[in-house]
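Researcher: Here's the sequence for the chain we discussed earlier.
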Amino acid sequence: MRLALTGLVLLAGLSSAACSASEAVTEPPVDEPTPFEPAPPSPPPPAPEARKPLAPPPPDVSDETFAEVVYVLMRDRKFDLWFCTGTLVAKDRVVTAAHCLDPQMFVAYEVVAPLAPSRPSVSASDPRLFGGDFELVENPDIGFLTLDTPIALPTYAQLTDVVARVESGEALTAAAVVRTKEEPEAPLALSQHLLLTSTVHLGYAYGFGTPYFSKGGDSGAGLFLVEDGKPTHKLIGVARQPEPDRDLDHFTRIGAPFLDWYHAADDL
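Model: Thanks. This is the structure I predict for it:
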């Protein structure tokens, strides 16, 4: 099944954009950049170096702080700016949705860690996409970027495979750290705990689902396993697209095929 790509949001007034939700159709869409109509015209934004953070970083990082959650900002061939969300799994690697890395569309990437000390912002390159055409629901929608300058954190997300547990019917819950509104650098917040289900029966061979909760702009956002009532740093999925008609948010699962491909990339 091929999907019509809808959802990455272009902020025309700010020359920027975002991966976000779109209307569900009978065959649900994969998120991708789509135009965003800004409110009334406003003065030109300050230069990037003068831009103030919308969410001040905490003074330090603890186990309660998901500092590995990052904004992924992408420039297209017209140098317009689009946005997604991602997760640092190492000092120089961000996992996000494949459609946020589309080399046919994007030519430059910036990664901002708003919850990390000093709020680092670095360029990234070498997008790698796993598993073929992400427009097909039977394929995964996941990949990674390599940071040009490492971001040092005491804790990075841990790629974790819970596929067998979910497919066996075990009741697992998860949480995501997502934007509070559809803006490139909107403040981040932790979602409620969400029941995790398989979406294989819907044709998503690499899919997990949760109850619908997203607000837009969070393609690529990480889904973290909840254990003993508390979200962990175990990354188990990556946001793909919402499907409100089914009350679902779709995620690409972190499973054995992806892990094998990811670790093989280390040897290249």
